[in-house]
Design brief:
With about 725 residues, the chain is of the alpha/beta class. The protein folds into three domains: about 300 residues, Glycerol-3-phosphate (1)-acyltransferase (3-Layer(aba) Sandwich); about 120 residues; about 270 residues, Rossmann fold. It contains 31 helices and 24 strands. Strands 1, 2, 3, 4, 5, 10, 11 and 12 form an eight-stranded mixed β-sheet that branches. Strands 16-18-17-19-20-23-24 form a seven-stranded mixed β-sheet, with helices on both faces. The protein has a three-stranded antiparallel β-sheet with strand order 13-15-14. Helix 27 links the parallel strand 19 and strand 20. The longest helix has 27 residues. It is elongated and about 110 Å long.
């Protein structure tokens, strides 16, 4: 009866292919990065994909994404308002089915029975712009001014498809030819397809799409639209600002496929089997949908796939920041906010959440070290631009009026994205428990835990490196290279000390003891590659040295109120770079004998020699023509290496080149100290460096000495007095 109509309305595969290519071209020009996960979970069988609905654009790209994975074309359900005129005909030809199409169910179920096309259904029924998914423990979505449960339509489509499949099988087994022919005609099934159909299974596959970051800004797309159309409707304006920004500025789109839900087990009950075997075909949709037993089954399936969809939300930084911001009553210290975000991320990693954004898998130490953190800064800038927060004197102040307001559903993504992001993760119960636990933990407990954790980690790293790179007759005793922490109870000021190139923490011990006796907490960092052997240093980069200082900084930061950083030689270069990055988080910086310009000719040749060595390594030449180390004659042979890795000199050059570019970014108090008779560092370079520092509070001190190492011996006493005086001035 229906076979001619169904076959006549088939989609245009040529048009689908052309549309798919057009979408691919647009994707290349946009800055959207589509990441697909767990495609192996998609069964090679008829599938109803049930997908959360947040943007307009997913209705265009998702069928193309799934087609590339499965090789099958897609029917997708779309609102009837789109099916007008030529555009409506185009929509039909590319697989869209109107919600008011009288043949809607026949098309979907026929495709699922035959297995020639899969289906996409958005069970929420419309875009859920506010991401408010849970209401009093139940799944509820906004629609026409009220909250309602998600639709069971997808569950019923899958149930009916499997029901008719079982019915076809039953008719065939019972040799009920009339009933069989009626079913086949109704769904456009040919005789050749029957055997294949009765051996298939219908599945529902939950799909979650998460976007990161979500920002609403004026962009080229909405500017063009405003020029073409005067007085754009507010809803369209909002969609262009949000989705246009995603395409123009970039967005990560994570598509997660969940475990498939087989439908046949839901039809194993006695009542369901009786219906399948009866002579009644139940071709009228209402006959099955009004059945109490099947309706309960459909609701159970709906809650199962909705739970699976939301459980696959790809957690990201913005979710965590948003949740903590909404939990904040009036204000929170910016440092505490970032610290709790760090602790939350570390706690969530232990949950083994399968769907975390890749950026959460990276090291999150920058949230603790007061260095620039792109994810955090971008979120804060967006929240400030929307008027949700303000920052003053190190505190984040929450605009309570903005958070207490009831927003218009269709503009909330633009007006308060923080609420939207908080809503999105409400179904992630394990995550919410972790976030709540961290948020309500007193800061003194968190500080104490971080100090203990990072001090332990720093020592463990040294122990591991010492064991791995120990060289008999060359590696110094362990106490020379071990980082040390001298805690003064009730001290309000602490100092991070950073040793020089090829040296070790012991180089700074005299200064550390002096400052400790003055009442300060002191931590002496160990730069990776130092205190072990030259072979270890040859493998390290200046970035690893920078991170070594960061670990020390975290220990001191969470021990005291005010932090200074003081470094010698290469440690002085690192000190200045930290001062440029951390800004007001540091109370002051002291650079002693910074290697702005090296006297040794080997320094100038290091980049060339290092590149040559790497080229030989590429050619797998291990010895001939290589010069990995050069002799070193240090002031402190009991501490320093006697061989200098060429690659290490190159790393020092790279570091100081960057430091020179960043001197103008230093705004905190700075003391530059330099030995007058330094044979390693050109003393003139120290003053040049001093002049380039932007800080208004800067001092220069020349120390009378005949050597480079002025942190020990008699010169060390002079240096210690000057350092202590500077700290006292600015503490």
């Amino acid at each position: 009866m229906y076979i001619e109509k169904v076959r006549a309305m088939d989609v245009s595969y040529n048009l689908l292919n052309l549309t798919g290519k057009a979408i691919d071209i647009l994707a290349k020009f946009s800055k959207a990065d589509i990441r697909v996960h767990d495609v192996d979970k998609i069964p090679k069988a008829p599938v109803v994909f049930v997908v959360n609905h947040f943007t307009r654009m997913e209705t265009f790209f998702l069928p193309n994404v799934i087609h590339k994975i499965t090789g099958k074309y897609i029917y997708s359900l779309a609102h009837h308002s789109f099916f007008v005129g030529g555009f409506g005909k185009f929509m039909e030809k590319v697989g869209a089915v109107s919600t008011k199409d009288p043949l809607r169910d026949v098309k979907f179920i026929g495709a699922l029975l035959r297995g020639d096309m899969d289906c996409i259904i958005f069970p929420e029924g419309q875009m859920v712009k506010d991401k408010k998914l849970v209401e009093r423990g139940k799944y509820m979505v906004y629609n026409s001014g009220i909250r309602r449960p998600p639709h069971t339509g997808a569950a019923f489509i899958a149930l009916r498809a499997q029901f008719y499949r079982e019915e076809l099988k039953s008719c065939k087994e019972r040799n009920a030819c009339d009933e069989l022919n009626n079913l086949m005609a109704h769904f456009g099934i040919s005789e050749q397809e029957l055997s294949h159909i009765t051996n298939q299974e219908t599945y529902i596959v939950p799909v979650n799409i998460t976007y990161f970051p979500i920002r609403a800004r004026a962009n080229i797309l909405n500017k063009i639209a405003n020029k073409l159309v005067k007085a754009l409707p507010e809803r369209i304006e909002e969609e262009l600002e949000v989705e246009g920004t995603m395409l123009v500025e970039g967005v990560d789109i994570d598509i997660n496929f969940g475990n498939p839900i087989a439908i046949s087990p839901y039809l194993k009950s006695y009542l369901a089997k009786q219906k399948i075997k009866s002579k009644k075909l139940y071709l009228d949709p209402q006959e099955l949908q009004s059945d109490v037993v099947l309706r309960k089954i459909a609701i159970d399936i709906m809650y199962r796939y909705m739970r699976d969809i939301y459980a696959m939300t790809t957690l990201n930084h913005d979710h965590i920041f948003s949740y903590f911001l909404t939990k904040t009553k009036n204000r929170i210290k910016e440092t505490d906010f970032k610290t709790k975000a760090y602790c939350a991320i570390e706690a969530i990693k232990k949950v083994n959440l399968a769907t975390c954004h890749t950026s959460l898998q990276l090291k999150q130490g920058y949230l603790l070290t007061d260095d620039p953190h792109g994810r955090y800064n971008d979120f804060i800038d967006a929240a400030k631009s929307e008027g949700l927060i303000s920052i003053k004197d190190g505190f984040i102040y929450k605009n309570k009026e903005k958070f207490s307001r009831l927003y218009e559903f269709h503009t909330i993504r633009k007006d308060n994205i923080v609420e939207v992001l908080k809503n999105e993760i409400e179904p992630l119960e394990q995550v919410i428990k972790k976030l709540d636990r961290v948020f309500w933990t007193p800061m003194f407990c968190i500080r104490r835990k971080l100090v203990k954790s990072f001090y332990k980690r720093d020592r463990e790293i040294f122990e591991k490196d010492y064991k791995e790179f120990f060289k008999q007759g060359e590696t110094k005793p362990k106490h020379i290279g071990m980082p040390f922490y001298k805690k003064r109870w009730f001290a309000r000021t602490g100092i991070v000390l950073v040793h020089g190139y090829m040296a070790a923490p012991e180089e700074m011990r005299q200064l550390a003891e002096f400052l400790y006796k003055k009442g300060y907490t002191v931590y002496c960092a160990r730069l990776r590659g130092h205190g072990t052997s030259p072979e270890d240093l040859a493998t390290r980069s200046w970035e690893e040295w920078y991170e070594s200082v960061n670990r020390s900084y975290i220990v001191v930061k969470y021990s005291v109120k005010k932090v200074f950083i003081c470094g010698f030689s290469t440690g002085a270069g690192l000190t200045l770079l930290h001062a440029a990055n951390k800004k007001d988080a540091l109370q002051g910086a002291i650079a002693i004998s910074a290697p702005y310009r090296l006297q040794n000719i080997a320094a100038g040749l290091a980049p060339v020699v290092d590149t040559w060595n790497k080229f030989l390594s590429f050619l797998k030449i291990k010895k001939i023509g290589r010069m990995d180390f050069i002799p070193n004659h240090p002031d402190n042979p009991d501490i320093n290496y006697l061989r200098n890795p060429v690659s290490g000199i190159h790393q020092m050059e790279l570091l100081m080149s960057l430091v020179e570019k960043r001197l103008a970014d230093i705004s905190i108090p700075v003391l530059i100290m330099q030995g007058a008779g330094d044979k390693t560092v050109d003393p003139k370079g120290a003053f040049e460096m001093f002049m380039k520092i932007a800080s208004e509070k800067k001092e220069f001190t020349m120390v009378h000495s005949k050597s480079h190492g002025i942190t020990r011996g008699e010169e060390g006493k002079v240096v210690a007095l000057r350092v202590a005086a500077n700290i006292k001035d600015y503490a």
